[in-house]
Amino acid sequence: MRLNPRWINKLVTWALTFQAVLAVGILVAIILVIFIKGAPHVSLGFIFSYPEDMGRHGGIFPSIVATVLLGLLSLVFATPLGVGTAIFLTEYTKESTFTRIIRFGVESLAGIPSIIYGLFGFIFFVIKLGMGWSLLSGTLTITIMVLPTIIRTSEEAIKAVPNNLRMVSFSLGATKWETVTRVVIPSAMPGILTGIMLSIGRAVSETAAVIFTMGSSLRLPTSLADSGRTMAVHFYILAREGISLEKAYGTALILVMTILIINFVAYYLMNRMVAKYS
Amino acid sequence: MQASQKFSSPALRTDRLNLYYGSFRALKQVDFQVHKNCITALIGPSGCGKSTLLRCFNRMNDLVEGVRIEGGIFVNEVPMENYDIIDLRRKVGMVFQRPNPFPFSVYENLTYGLHIHGVRGNRAEIVERCLRAVGVWDDIKDKLKKPALSLSDEMKQRLCIARLLTIEPRIILLDEPCSALDPIATMRVEELMIELKKEYTILIVTHNMQQAARVSDYAGFMLLGELMEFGLTGQIFTSPKHEKTEEYITGRFG
Known about the structure:
The structure holds two protein chains of two kinds. Chain A contains eleven helices and two strands, in the order ααββααααααααα. Chain A is mainly α. Chain A has two domains: 5-41; 44-277, MetI-like (MetI-like fold). In chain A, strands 1-2 form a two-stranded antiparallel ribbon. In chain A, a hairpin with a 4-residue loop joins strand 1 and strand 2. Chain B has helices at 2-7, 50-56, 85-91, 106-116, 123-133, 137-140, 153-165, 183-196, 209-215, 233-238, 243-249; strands spanning 12-21, 24-34, 39-43, 67-75, 78-79, 92-95, 171-175, 201-205, 218-223, 226-232. By secondary structure, chain B is an alpha/beta fold. Chain B has a single domain, classed as P-loop containing nucleotide triphosphate hydrolases (Rossmann fold), CATH 3.40.50.300. Helices cover 37% and strands 25% of the residues of chain B. The longest helix of chain B has 14 residues, at 183-196. The chains are: A mainly alpha, B alpha/beta. At the A-B interface, helix 7 and helix 8 of A face helix 3, helix 4 and helix 7 of B.
């Protein structure tokens, strides 16, 4: 017996709609739970004051600062390195064993669990290079961790730039470097930004790698050599050690809001760029 | 006018030019010339080497892997080897088959070449002059901030020509510039070419026989990498010397 194709079509439409709703629904549910549990404990005071008694009371100001610093500094290191590698791989070399090895390395890096990065950062930056538990150790570790994401997304974005744009740039007398910086990178910018935003998200929400390298001091980090406790780490410690579930949810809410804000800003920037040029 | 042109030195010339893509010989012993302030058309079936020949003059073939060139190429009677590639490409500009504006604003497209060559002076004025030269100033002057990709295909192609004019080339290579345009737009771009030849030397590759007949002063017919016949367009189209030329222009093959 053959099923009626129109009937199958209807069924598939419904099934796919359901899946899409489910995917978004889960996200909404998570945010709702965190909002409902966290909102009563969040206030301006919570955001702008220091924690007391290991976080049982007071706010999370130093953690917010630590999180923002870690996110931004990792990007400052990872973006040039990652985009540079992507440019090298796509524009400055031909496909060869060498590029395949680099690409394989990058892909392998992407698959390593973050705690391994933490361990490496601890052994190498914290102990071997004597940086101690510090913002710098944490930043460098996160930089290595997010590099594969930035390299891969940038590479895809650069590859997607139509080749005739390079040709016309050369035909106008531009050098390779001028073509890369003035045509290829601007055209690939939305894609590159996506990678950067994904990376910020990872940096801001990372716990395992950060605990090992940046420590969990509750003080306000004021230099690269200072230890600090990011919001994700703070949440982990508050919840894990049963210090204060209320404060944990409050922290989670601020963390989620931070990530949402970053995503909105990124989305806005990207749309503006896309709208400007197409 | 054309009689006198014959005696002035050619803008572009090749001397027994051979070009190989790896082991494939794409151009065979080509002796060819393009006269100043004339439109010269290259016709011939697909794969005959006409685009390859065109791209020799601004060294775009360099970007293809495994290309080898034998014989002489001269720009204003100076051998190709004596040119710095950037100066050469500034002097010998190219317009591509598909309109290819950068995904920037109209204005940024037009100032790209100026940035590259560090041209000082009033950029807005240069932009206006070049847009007027391609006949779109009145249509486009309020859209300078708009994305170039939002223009129609004809406008895009004109913009690409204007973008080229900003860097003041002497010679313009057109690689099937109208193949992505409708007949009306094609006609208008042809009128533009005739307008441009007062100041520029033009070499055009075209699949469109009528186009070659309409716009060009000289025409060359290529087949399988050889320049079969070259001469005044009128003569090529009315009394071709070569049997193959006649067969091609009368539509018996190609």
